[in-house]
Specification:
heterodimer; A: two-stranded antiparallel sheet; two-stranded antiparallel ribbon; 3 helices; B: alpha/beta; 2 domains; five-stranded mixed sheet; elongated
Chain lengths: 96, 341
């Protein structure tokens, strides 16, 4: 995304280029266009833009992409944490 | 589904076992008011339309099928963007949540899409086997599995609803812009009311206590002190939930907690100046509390942006939460000392 980027070097995104069959679905579903086709296989050109939404790994037909997908939302994560401590009655990791 | 659903015009002539409403692409005042209320968090969690198949214009068996969520605001934006076209709208049950959040939760997902295709008898309504989905839905919908289970091919079309007409006109081809997220000032501004409302709801419990605590000093009841304390608290929330999101691209560093702290420090400096605070404890109390609250509120805004990640938020939270908590604790201690002076 132009002019916006978040904390660098923390993404859990991993692409196994050996397993990639070059279908290109990851280049279609990634909302930040961080994949590109290089030598008929996918490559991550800008992994720091990853928001870990999980669209690529979910849609990859050969499970060549791993990402610890989830919502990047502080209140969601606090709710998740409270729910795990069984303090909050609301539960769930949702804020939206 | 009945005739009371938003935008209902008539029933579609083709009746494949169940009635399909033809809906108007024209939004009414009630729709605009409804969106405005949802933006302010009023009844937002129950602002929805029934899931199912809808018709826009006069679609036939060759018309495209657009898939969306049953959040009423989403439904309204989609139908108004598709004015003058003939197509089918397949609305999934996302319990009134937008596409992106619902995809993250899995309700805008493979299972629901497959179920809805079957429940609506979509296979009998159209001759082709293509679905147009929002790109943000890809986090929940596994295209190859939908294809395997229903025969329908999922095309992840555009990110924004407004790009859909251009995509359709270009023979279902997306330009790079249609696939690239933006987060403009206007896009940020519309998200701030709900942040403000939810922060204020939390503050509502603290404000009366704060007012009484600040107003009752050693010199008896002081209304001005109480009001000042409330103003400081509200300024902190405005700083973190409105000012910081708007200033987002211009605030230094990538960290939202730091961005919020910077705005908070500036706002608190203005407060210190305006309230003519002179003692060390009073300055500390205002500076630290406003900075901490602003920082926390801005950290919460990560959930509203389209470019933050779970790992990034975790990274920030581990470092920022202890500092915010510590600063607030010191601020409260300073305020107590200030009051006893």
């Amino acid at each position: 995304m132009k002019s916006f980027s978040y904390i660098k070097g923390v993404t859990t995104l991993e692409l196994d280029r050996e397993a990639c069959i070059g279908c290109g679905i990851c280049t279609t579903v990634c909302p930040h266009n961080l994949f590109a086709m290089q030598e008929k296989k996918a490559a991550t050109v800008n992994p720091d833009l990853c928001i870990e939404c999980g669209a690529c790994s979910l849609n990859c037909p050969v499970k060549a992409i791993f990402v610890d997908a989830g919502v990047g939302c502080a209140s969601g994560m606090i709710n998740e944490w409270l729910a795990s401590l069984k303090i909050s009655k609301k539960g769930g990791a949702s804020c939206c | 589904m009945d005739e009371n659903l938003p935008g209902f015009i008539t029933w579609h002539p083709v009746d494949a076992g169940q009635r399909i409403p033809v809906i108007s692409p024209q939004l009414t005042f009630a729709d605009t008011l409804g969106s405005w209320k949802a933006r302010w968090g009023i009844g937002r969690m129950s602002y929805l339309v029934p899931p199912g198949l809808y018709a826009i214009g006069a679609p036939d068996s060759a018309s495209p099928v657009v898939v969306t969520a049953n959040y009423k605001m989403t439904y309204d934006l989609v139908r108004s963007a598709l004015k003058g076209r003939n197509l089918w709208l397949l609305v999934l049950e996302t319990y009134g949540i937008n596409v992106w959040c619902a995809a993250g939760k899995g309700t805008f997902g493979t299972g629901e899409l497959v179920r809805r295709i079957e429940a609506c008898g979509l296979g009998a309504m159209v001759a082709h086997r293509e679905l147009l989905l929002p790109i943000m839905g890809a986090a929940g919908v596994k295209g190859i599995e939908v294809k395997k289970r229903t025969g329908f091919n999922c095309r992840f079309a555009t990110l924004r609803i407004n790009d859909l007409p251009g995509y359709l006109d270009a023979g279902m081809q997306a330009t790079r812009e249609m696939r690239e997220l933006t987060f403009s000032l206007k896009e940020r501004l519309v998200l701030t009311p709900v942040e403000l409302v939810s922060s204020l709801q939390t503050a509502l419990y603290a404000l009366p206590l704060l007012f009484i605590g600040a107003a009752t000093g050693s010199a008896g009841f002081n209304l001005v002190n109480g009001c000042h304390a409330v103003i400081v608290c509200l300024a902190a929330i405005l700083s973190g939930a409105l000012l910081s999101p708007l200033l987002l691209p211009w605030l230094p560093t990538r960290s939202f907690a730091v961005k919020g702290a910077i705005t908070g420090a500036l706002v608190s400096a203005a407060l210190v100046y305006h309230l003519k605070l002179a003692t060390t404890v009073s300055v500390m109390a205002v500076l630290l509390s406003v900075t901490a609250i602003s920082s926390f509120a801005m950290l919460n805004f990560t959930g509203s942006t389209p470019f933050t990640s779970r790992s990034g938020v975790k990274f920030e939270m581990r470092r920022a939460l202890p500092l915010q908590g510590g600063a607030l604790a010191v601020a409260v201690a300073a305020a107590l000392v200030w009051r006893l002076m």
